[in-house]
Amino acid sequence: MAGSVLKTTTGWDEGAATSTDNINFSALPGGLASSQNNFEGMPKNAYFMTTSKVPERDYKYVVNLFYKENDVTFRDDYSESRFVSVRCVKGTLSSSSSVASSSSVKSSSSSAPPSSSSFGSSGSFRFNHDGEVYEVNYVTYNGVVWMNENLALKGVGSTFNNSGDANSYREYFTWSEAKSACPEGWRLPKSNEFNESKGLEDFSTFRDSASTLKSQLLYNYWDEKGSGGMYWTETSKGDTVDVIMFKHKESGYRVTEGKIVRVVVDENIANLRFSVRCVKYGRSVAETKKRPSTTPVTFSLEKVLGVDHIVVQIGEQKWLGENLKDGLNNTARICRDGSLAPCDRSKSGYYYTYQEAKQISNGSTNWKLPNSDDINKLWAAVGNNHRNLMSFKHGTNEFGLDIVRSGYFDANGNFYNNFDAWIWRFDLEVEASGREPYLSFPGDADDIGLYDLAKGSRLPVRLIWTDSNNH
Question: 21 and 157: one domain?
């Protein structure tokens, strides 16, 4: 149960979180006293003794209410030589009670977590994994208990960008690792549990970029920390697994409203590593809180012109999910820094002339330069908002197309406009005018633009999979 309903509405230090004392528990910030009668913690903390002993230590668990927070936590670091407040109980709490019983605190120190019925609206629990004891915060929402922080273990999983040593906490897991990473009695969430939890982000640290957006390894790249977060679910079909995806945005809340996307998973693919939030059922689902339906998104790793690329299917369209890397296999390719190929694995990809881009498109059976119809269909599928496709400036990249700031080279090799994204498109009418067509994703404007350039410029390339001959 949230501490707000337990605390008195007055008597706490200035800056205290709002309290309601709804059940007349009337907790006051009495602090604690040491054996030398030194008092501390007033008027910021309330402490209440329990009968549950901390394993292998001469301590008892203590219930703690803190003035700036409304979580109920259980402390295991106060020896019995300290004096705290006492609240006596009579009988036992029913399974419908929202307050975690002292027996649940005791069981949380063992290898098995407390039963679902012993979890309140928020708090923390302990579990044992390979001899290591972990304490994790949780939150109960719409009948499901969620970990309120990313699972981090030692000895299994990966660290960001594969850094860290054997003693590092690892927060990124392959699909195979994730399926067995949760504590006993916990599991990966089902996609429908997330889809029926509208508002969970506002009730938990899913809105907190420090806890959520710690990146992920999506096939080829570790995303920059803070740019996005992806979480495994247990829902799979064929070779795809449903994943909860959040993306950063600069205005309003820190992250977009989460959505379910799909990733194509091969058990042999090790370069898919996402975060984990384990769940378990609470008492009952109070109400269905369905998220609005959105255009489905599926990520895969495919050979495009002989090179591995991230591919994103948005509705019925399938696009390269990154700028084209190697489309000609010759030294005509130019890198972002102006040097000749081979380039590093920058998301900017290679810069091609329009004629080179057409050569690539004409030489492929199905991967083609997009035309205006393709662009208009994409625009409609993402809610007529190009920022849902961009991963720079004010973009949210909500649909995972990952359009990056690129700029372009003019015919003389001068680099221009590093503020926007530019990619080639196909347009016979523009060609007939002696110009060359491109698509612009501006960082500050509210719309994409279909423009044209003088001949000889170099831009990145994005291809679309199509059966149409009008490309």
Answer: no
Q: What angle do CA 424, 429, 431 make, to 5 degrees?
A: 55
Torsion sign over Cα 325, 327, 329, 334: negative
**Domain final position from 88, 118, 134:** 88
Residues in contact with 205: Cβ distance below 8 Å, sequence separation at least 6, in sequence order: 137, 148, 149, 211, 212
Q: Which of 57, 88, 119 is the last residue of a domain?
A: 88
- Kindly report which listed range (205-219, 236-250, 334-348) carries the lowest average pLDDT score: 334-348
Number of folded domains that form the chain: 3
User: In the chain, pLDDT over 70 holds for what percent of residues?
Assistant: 79
Whether residue 221 contacts residue 167, with contact meaning beta carbons closer than 8 Å, is answered with no
> Based on the domain organization, do 45 and 177 belong to the same domain?
no
Q: Is residue 380 classed as helix, strand or coil in its secondary structure?
A: helix
Looking at the domain assignment, is residue 236 inside a domain? yes
Retrieve residue 316's tokens: 């019925």
Element (DSSP H or E) covering residue 202: helix 200-203
Sheet holding 279-281, edge to edge: 122-129, 132-141, 144-147, 279-281
Residue type, 289: K
Beta strand 122-129 with 72-75: parallel, antiparallel or unpaired?
unpaired
Q: How far apart are CA 132 and CA 111, in angstroms?
A: 10
Q: Is residue 94 part of a domain?
A: no
Q: Are residues 54 and 125 in the same domain?
A: no
| Whether 145 contacts 282, CB under 8 Å | yes
Q: Which amino acid is at 121?
A: S
Among 51-55, 223-227, 425-429, 466-470, the least confident range? 51-55
Residue 354, domain member (yes or no) = yes
Instruction: Provide CB contacts within 8 A for 400, sequence distance 6+.
Output: 245, 261, 297, 299, 312, 314, 321
Q: Are residues 243 and 347 in the same domain?
A: no
Running DSSP on this structure, what letter comes out for residue 336? T
Residue 166 shares a structural domain with residue 194: yes
Task: Mark whether 289 and 315 lie in a shared domain.
Answer: no
43 preceded by cis ω (within 30°)? yes
Written as one string, the DSSP assignment of 28-40 is: ----EE-TT--EE
pLDDT computed for residue 86 by the predictor:
86
Structural domain of 59: 1-88
**352 shares a domain with 238:** no
The per-residue pLDDT for 446 is: 66
Spatial distance between the Cα atoms of 462 and 231, rounded to a whole number of angstroms: 27
Whether residue 342 has a cis bond before it, omega within 30° of 0: yes
80 and 228 in a single domain? The answer is no
